[in-house]
Amino acid sequence: MRAVMDTNVQIPELLLQEVRELASQQNASVDQIVSAALVAQVSAWRTRESVASRAGRVNWQQVDEILVGCRTCHRQMAMNCNQTRILNVRHHQLAASADVCPP
């Protein structure tokens, strides 16, 4: 079982009122709503940090070379192509030998 810690926080009265209403609607306690919200926010911050860190490691020159190699995808169109968005090299190999981008 995970350890649970007690802490006191100061939050605006209007926010506390909203949390109480939400807890009532969800048949949950205020503690459960606050904990769930805190978990979600911390997760979002970590995901954002991870994405920023990964984006910082991208070799954008290599990305441009891959996109230029795709005869049928202009750079702007490629941003809307799910396969291209994740920079799937296999996609570009297929696209180089095909008339259209694979789905």
Topology:
Elements: H1 13-25, H2 30-56, H3 60-69, H4 75-78, H5 82-85, H6 89-96
Helix pairs in contact: 1-2
Task: Outline the structure in words.
- There is one protein chain.
- The chain has 103 residues and is an all-alpha fold.
- It folds into two domains: 47 residues; 46 residues, no CATH class.
- 64% of the residues lie in helices and 0% in strands.
- The chain is built from six helices and no strands.
- Helix 1 crosses helix 2.
- The longest helix has 27 residues.
- The radius of gyration is 23 Å and the shape is elongated.
Summarize the structure.
This protein has 103 residues and is mainly α.
Number of helices: 6
Shape category: elongated
β-strand number: 0
Give the helix level as a range of percent. Answer: 55-70%
> What gap, in angstroms, lies between the N and C termini?
46 Å
Q: What low-confidence regions span 5 or more consecutive residues with pLDDT below 50?
A: 97-103
Mean pLDDT rating: 76
Structural class: mainly alpha
Report Rg.
23 Å
Give, in order, the helices and strands.
Answer: HHHHHH
Beta-strand share of residues: under 5%
What tags apply to this protein structure?
single chain; 103 residues; mainly alpha; 2 domains; 6 helices; 64% helix; disordered C terminus
